[in-house]
């Protein structure tokens, strides 16, 4: 078992996503930074869909009751094993009784803890990703215990990876969305040239931006939205839908950011600056 | 079977959007659903594909790979021309109970003034109409129901509530719907439906499909309590007419 001693700010279980239920309004969910979760699983030679812990900004305190191996990736939250600093982006041997904790937030926003064989928490609608009320909980709380298989025999082929540098100013690769052409030429120019700032309202569902692009009254009938869809509200605000984003919406979809850009945005938070870079 | 001018647009690298004329029309919805069933049989039905139908659009998402837009656009235009109506699906109609007690219908009094109708008239109008499920989204199992009588059309609330109770039945412009879970929401709440629309523990978590029709019937507070207990212990209360 992995005992949750302290929960941290917002720690969840995520896998590669809950597919096949969008037509019933069920968001895809899954790791916000899929690339980082993939890296953590890959270091342990886990299947890509293995469930990992997604740790947001401030880390939990975790106690292991069985031997295993873990891999850390994503945001650097100063991981410590039994109060000794350990490297992020690397594989670590775990003995029964070990405690994993986190310290100062160095960079990024979301860190990932993969475990050999994956966390074996409850599967609901073919996925272990937390999303309330599909799953009972929306984040881990102190006192919970997560099941995993004991592993003693494992020779990691890779023990360290060199992470991609997190750009201070993010450039999101964006292609025109279905309603891109409701924008006038001046708005289009602004969209791809002005800096935008991430608003306080940013979470697993969506990131709002602070700047106003200009109000509109374009009539819409509710239609599908995807993770990475950039919506324009009637008041002119931009909302970038993320992994837990709703599957349909009634706001014009002016841009669609790339999969890689969703991963990068997931490491950013309130006050950070970004640009949209047109592709396609 | 009607034929419409359709438009196909790229939607990121792994999805395409097919659009029908901008209209809330059950004939358009029928055509969308016929096309959806047809493309599923013609190579877009595997587990890598998800297809979302709503109002005047069909979105095809591939969960595994990027798509070549020109190719898929041409292929879909061709499939649209040659589409055939599959074996006629059994028409599905649901009768759902609603308790319009003021305890649940927290906006009934305000609406009654706004629409210059008595609460009884609002209930009569709401239960007399037959609604079509034009989409499912916003929340798991949230049904966008079209077919609201003109006399009941009313704008959303100026500021949304932070929490609308599960089962709440709301009205907003040309739509009515049921909140399948506690959620923030801006619709005018007129009652509560004790039948859970969405249950993640079931293999088919939502019994309603896009294209189904729904009627509401009024129940008393006592019947509501009984239905709530029955739903909790798993007694199936659904009435389906064919």
UniProtKB/TrEMBL annotation, chain A:
Keywords per UniProt: ATP-binding, Hydrolase, Nucleotide-binding
The Carboxyltransferase domain, residue ranges: 23-280
Secretion signal span: none
InterPro entries documented for this protein: CT_A_B (IPR003778), Cyclophilin-like_dom_sf (IPR029000), PxpC (IPR052708)
Keyword Nucleotide-binding: yes
Pfam families recorded: CT_A_B
Record protein name field: Carboxyltransferase domain-containing protein
Phylogenetic placement of the source organism: Bacteria, Pseudomonadati, Bacteroidota, Flavobacteriia, Flavobacteriales
UniProtKB/TrEMBL annotation, chain B:
Domain of life, per lineage: Bacteria
Residue runs in coiled coils: none
One function term, GO molecular function aspect: hydrolase activity
Any Pfam family the entry gives: CT_C_D
Keyword ATP-binding included in the entry's annotation: yes
SMART domains reported in the protein's UniProt record: AHS1
All residue ranges annotated as the Carboxyltransferase domain in the record: 6-208
Record-linked Gene3D superfamilies: 3.30.1360.40, Cyclophilin-like
Keywords, in A-Z order: ATP-binding, Hydrolase, Nucleotide-binding
Protein name listed in UniProt: Allophanate hydrolase
């Amino acid at each position: 078992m992995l005992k949750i001693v302290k929960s941290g700010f917002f720690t969840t279980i995520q896998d590669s996503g809950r597919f096949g239920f969008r037509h019933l309004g069920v968001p895809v969910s899954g790791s916000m930074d899929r690339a980082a979760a993939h890296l953590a699983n890959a270091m342990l030679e886990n299947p890509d869909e293995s469930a990992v812990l997604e740790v947001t900004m401030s880390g939990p305190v975790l106690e292991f009751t069985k031997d295993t191996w873990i891999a850390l990736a994503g945001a650097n939250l100063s991981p410590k094993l039994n109060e000794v600093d350990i490297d992020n982006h690397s594989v670590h041997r775990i003995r029964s009784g070990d405690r994993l904790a986190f310290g100062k937030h160095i960079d990024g926003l979301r860190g990932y803890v993969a475990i050999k064989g994956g966390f074996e928490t409850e599967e609901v609608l073919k996925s272990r990703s937390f999303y309330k009320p599909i799953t009972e909980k929306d984040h881990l709380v102190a006192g919970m215990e997560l099941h995993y298989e004991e592993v003693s025999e494992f020779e990691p082929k890779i023990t360290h990876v060199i992470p991609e540098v997190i750009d201070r100013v993010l450039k999101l690769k964006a292609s025109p969305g279905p309603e891109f052409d409701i924008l006038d030429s001046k708005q289009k120019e602004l969209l791809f040239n002005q800096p935008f700032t991430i608003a306080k309202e940013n979470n697993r569902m969506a990131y709002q931006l602070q700047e106003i692009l200009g109000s509109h009254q374009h009539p819409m009938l509710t239609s599908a939205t995807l993770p990475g869809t950039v919506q324009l509200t009637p008041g002119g605000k931009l909302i970038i839908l993320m992994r837990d984003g709703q599957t349909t919406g009634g706001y014009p979809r002016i841009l669609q950011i790339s999969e890689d850009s969703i991963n990068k945005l997931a490491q950013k938070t309130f006050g950070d600056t970004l640009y949209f870079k047109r592709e396609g | 079977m009607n034929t419409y001018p359709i438009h196909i647009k790229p939607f990121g690298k792994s999805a395409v959007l097919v659009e029908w004329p901008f209209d809330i029309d059950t004939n358009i919805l029928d055509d969308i659903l016929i096309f959806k069933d047809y493309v599923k049989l013609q190579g877009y039905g595997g587990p890598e594909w998800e297809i979302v139908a709503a109002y005047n659009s069909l979105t095809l998402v591939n969960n595994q790979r990027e798509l070549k837009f020109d190719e898929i656009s041409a292929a879909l235009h061709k499939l649209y021309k040659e589409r055939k109506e599959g074996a006629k699906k059994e028409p599905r109609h649901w009768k759902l109970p609603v308790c319009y007690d003021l305890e649940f219908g927290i906006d009934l009094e305000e609406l009654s003034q706004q629409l210059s109708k008595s609460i009884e008239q609002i209930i009569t109008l709401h239960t007399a109409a037959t609604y079509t499920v034009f989409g499912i989204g916003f929340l798991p199992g949230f049904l966008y129901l079209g077919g609201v009588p003109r006399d009941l059309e009313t704008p959303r609330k100026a500021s949304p509530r932070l929490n609308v109770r599960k089962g709440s039945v709301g009205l907003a412009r040309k739509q009515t719907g049921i909140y399948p879970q506690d959620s923030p929401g801006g619709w005018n709440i007129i009652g509560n439906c004790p039948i859970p629309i969405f249950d993640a523990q079931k293999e088919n978590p939502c019994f309603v499909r896009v294209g189904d029709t729904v009627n509401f019937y009024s129940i008393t507070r006592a019947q509501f309590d009984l239905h709530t207990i029955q739903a909790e212990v798993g007694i199936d209360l659904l009435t389906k007419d064919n």
